[in-house]
Structure formats: C-alpha cells, structure tokens
Design brief:
With 482 residues, the chain is of the alpha/beta class. It has helices spanning 19-22, 45-50, 73-87, 98-101, 112-127, 143-149, 156-172, 193-196, 203-231, 253-276, 281-289, 300-306, 356-370, 396-414, 463-473, and strands at residues 12-16, 91-95, 131-137, 178-182, 236-242, 246-248, 311-315, 320-322, 331-332, 339-340, 346-347, 353-354, 374-378, 419-425, 445-447, 459-461. The protein has one domain (12-473): Alpha-Beta Barrel (TIM Barrel), CATH 3.20.20. It starts with 11 loop residues before the first strand and ends in a 9-residue tail after the last helix.
Amino acid sequence: MNKTYRFPEGFLWGGATAANQLEGAYQEGGKGLSIADVLPGGKVRLNVLAGNEFDFEIDKSNYVYPNHDGIDFYHRYKEDIALFAEMGFKAYRMSIAWSRIFPNGDELTPNEEGLQFYDHVFDELDKYGIEPIVTISHYEMPLHLVKAYGGWKNRQLVSFFERYAKTLFERYKNKVKYWLTFNEINGAIHFPILSLGFVPKSEDTRLQHIFQGLHHQFVASSLAVKAAHEIIPDAKVGCMLIYAPTYSFDCHPENVWHALHENRIFNYLCGDVQVRGEYPAFAKRFFQENGVELEIHDGDLELLKRYPVDFISFSYYMSRTVKKIPSSEEMTSGNIIGGVKNPFLQASDWGWEIDPIGLRIALNELYDRYQKPLFVVENGLGAYDKVEEDGSINDDYRIDYLREHIKAMGEAIEDGVELMGYTSWGCIDLVSASTGEMSKRYGYIYVDKNDDGSGTLERKKKKSFFWYKHVISTNGRELYHE
C-alpha cells in the first residue's frame, strides 16, 4: 500500500532554471559578457576550468559555447511559462543575469532594456499566478568584474553587488517577494571560478583567496538582506547552499571524524555565517591550520549578525561518502564534489549517486541546526532521453527518481521539518552547468537541441510532465498517477 503524504497548504511546487543556462541572446538587449559566456561546453569543461591557466577568453576555434544560445528563453519565455502554468506551477525559481542589468558590473546606472526584459517575464508569471523565486547571482557575474577586479577577492565587488541588488529590489518590489542572494555559495570551496570569478594560481594561497572572497559575499548578502527588508517590507531573502550529507566510508573512528570535518567545512561553514550570523567555532582552527587570515573590516561582523537570511534554500542531488585515506575504492563524481563509491547506491548516467533518503537526512540536519524554514530549490535527474517514433518521451526513470525524493520530503515534514516548497532543477531542458551539454537532460519539457547546436528548439512534453502536473494538483498526495 502506497503511503499518502500531506504537504502544507500553500506549498510552493514548481521548477528551477538559471539565466545563463537557458536565456541565450548573450549579446542582445544591451547585455554584457558574463563569466558563463566564456565557459566552454562539453565534457572537457570542468577539466579546462580546473587548470590554473584558464584565461577567461572565448576560443571558438577549439571549443563550443552552448550558453550563448541556451534554449532561447529570451525570445520564447511566453511559450515556456505557459507550459509551466499548464503543469500547475505555484512557483518558478529563476535567476537574473547580472550583466543584463549592469553590463560591466561597475556602472552607476543600469541597462533599461535588461530591466524591461525581466519586467515582461515577471508580468507573464503573474498572469498565471506563479510566484517568482529570484536568484540574484547564479554563476553569471559580469566578465569585466573578473578581468578588471579579480573577482570576489576584491572588496570593491561588495558595493557593486549592493547597487545591483538595490536596483532589483526597487524595480521589482511589487513583483517579487522571494529572493536568494548567491547560488550554491559553498560550492566555491571546491570550485571558485563559477561564483567567485577567479582561478587559484597557487595551492599555497588557494584557501586564503577563496575564504576572503566568501567573506566579501557574506557581507554583500547581509547588505542585500538589509536593503530588501527596507525596500520590500514583506520580502523574504534566503541563502542557497549545495547540500550533500557526508557519510563515513565505515565505522573506523578516523573516517567518522573525517566525515564530520568534511560535513562542517562544506555543508555548514557558509550556512552558519548566513543563517546564524557568525563564523562557527570550528572555523578558527581550520583557518589557522590552513594559513587563512581574513581581512575583516570594522562593522562586518555586526552586519552579519544583524542581517541573517530569512530562510535556507539548497540544492540536493546526492549524498557523499568519504574516507580519510582513499585506497583502491572506486571514486564517484557529483555536483562539484565527489567521494568514495557507496556500495548501497545506484548512480545516474553521469555517475551521480542516487540517494532519496539522503534528502530526508539533509532536511533534518539543516532544520535541527538552524530551525528556520527550508526550501528545496534544486533536485533532479540528469539523463539521456529518447524521443520515440510517435514523438513521445517515456522518462519513467525520472518519475521514479522524483517520486522517491518527494516521498523523502514528505517524511521530513512528518519529522517536524518546516518546508516551504520544492522547485525541481531544469524543469525545461537546458544547458548543463557541469558539462555544458544539452544531452544531460533534467526537464519535464524536452527541447529539440543537440550538443552540436543543431535542432529546431521545439518543445515537447515528456511523460513526467503529466505526472508532475498530477502531483501538484493533489498537493503531493498522489505520487503514483500514470
């Protein structure tokens, strides 16, 4: 017998995307280049970006750049939002491309054409009663801030971000209530190029530059919370973390301690600063042992304490298993971070381990620690989809994945967790952030575009489209509808 779950009234069911992965039109509407525009596509992406010689230049003789075209949401947003509405979305988590609003990032006045584009998007969402959940910075900072200032290592970016955030709050104060400051902020600990805008040049200074950049983002986030509450009194501002519960490979005490340490540094350090408003006690020793000496200005710590976030949003794709000294164990990949293969879990086509119970664990761990509302704003299965001869896409594997994760959320709610909503990742197929591929598909809506850029961009409803529509219409009570 299938268990029935009760989700709260007003639960925000929907989907999530990022501007740089679906908008396209990378040189239209006065938009400046962003860091996403110089990231090459294909399975070589992470290897290229991990090297310390990446020069932030577009090199079309050697690479392809699928983000430049995305899925052309810039011109097709009405069609796509109508499909979201047909599924019954209550919410749509999206991001604003910073370089559409401030093309270089350091201008004094914004680009009106960019602001108008998002006016149109928000008006279209409002037409269908869909609540926008807006990420202010989602791996798409203006490229000029990288080249001229060195990214978030430079304190000047705090004021540029504050100006950008205030511009959004003033412009959209009657259209957007829910805001997220920095996407997957803790991901920078392992891969700083996407959100901090620099490639570490030396292992000796790597952590120093990363945590200095993160400190600047913490300050900028608190300034955004302050401004949002002043400009939009009923606004709710959240942080956004990657959350991957960290399991010990076995019960050896050294491995158990190693897992606890990894969990603290990756999952909790950034959350503690943004939610509790202060650096955790364990950070002091970690910084000392790794040669990190933060430059903290007068008033910074008071600002962090006074303006923490209102809720915690996070992405959940997989758990992570770690061992103090990996030996012959097979390693796995994942969302920015990987680990030792967990023998009890299956993996996706891209090697990301599938662990629905890990989501229940994540929700309980976060709520136990912070007692603030939670919001799952990314979760989904990247997979190869096949279009059948009759045009259908039978993605039962995606339905199975999502169903089990929604059940885990239902269990967490029964555990006492306060959960605001669920916006599954890539509700419409888009360019993968990790590999720059279209073939790694997450959506309920298929987009006819291939890795080589060919395709008609026609939208097709997958089997999961109709399944998720039913889930939303029953507020999560019926998960087995065909």
